[in-house]
What we know:
Elements: H1 3-6, H2 9-22, E1 26-32, E2 36-44, E3 56-58, H3 63-68, E4 74-75, H4 88-93, E5 97-104, E6 110-118, H5 126-143, E7 154-155, E8 161-163, E9 166-168, H6 171-182, H7 200-232, H8 236-249, H9 254-264, H10 274-277
Antiparallel strand pairs: 1-2, 1-6, 2-3, 4-5, 5-6, 7-8, 8-9
Helix pairs in contact: 2-5, 2-7, 5-7, 6-7, 7-8, 7-9
Amino acid sequence: MSAARLDHPVIDAVLATAATALDMEVVFLGGLTDDLFTFERVHARTSWPEVQQGASRPRTDSFCHRLLTGAAPKTADAASSPDYRDAAAREALGITSYVGVPVPDPNGSPAATLCGIDRRRVDVPDEAVELLRRLADVLSAQLGPSVSDRIVISRAPDGSWQVGDDHTQDLTSAMVLADLLAGEITPSGRPARSDVPLDELAQLRLSVKQLEHALAARVVVEQAIGVLTERQGSSPRDAFERLRKVARSRGRKVHDLAREVVASASDHAVPLPPELAGRR
């Protein structure tokens, strides 16, 4: 996994939401190769010297290896768990409680893990595990390429954005996400905040829904940037600025206008403002 992807604010948002849902000392994104397990990103509530971002261990020592080979997704007493009691990481790190879910790649195979660990006994409810699975799907969309029926913008192995033969760094994505989080881009159907007081679990579910919708909107905007870049021969950053300027001048939402731009790539009958129509 590239540093550009892992440093993205959406990763922080997912880990923070997971930490609230699990109420565990550490929530982390784990990466696995054939031989190694690595703490790729760590969200820690307390100091745990043995658990540091970037630290690696032999893959077979890790709880995540057990998870991906069929172990139960959670335990509140690892020492007595038939799945985890003989994992080398249990004694080495002092883990008592564990919960984890795979983060799938676009083909559905595990690309990483989203997990929580604690030195105390923590009974994680099934509802929290389900929230963790949904957050893993958000991570999957973030870490993988932005795709539709036709790929218009994707991420290269070095972490840059690729549009045609052109590469650019993650600036465009950061700009798009910043607008999403600021509320400037509001996708149709985004869950509204409730006026009725919500319990903690309901608040977490709402947070996950809002994150899912924000990511979906971001993907549509990225696709529109790819269409405009190829159509008008501009840089992704210039394409994004043009899309935002046209949306503001016409009182439109960026997300809605982006959807029309993407549709116009395969249907030339879709009407667009002259500034975005270009060569089709």
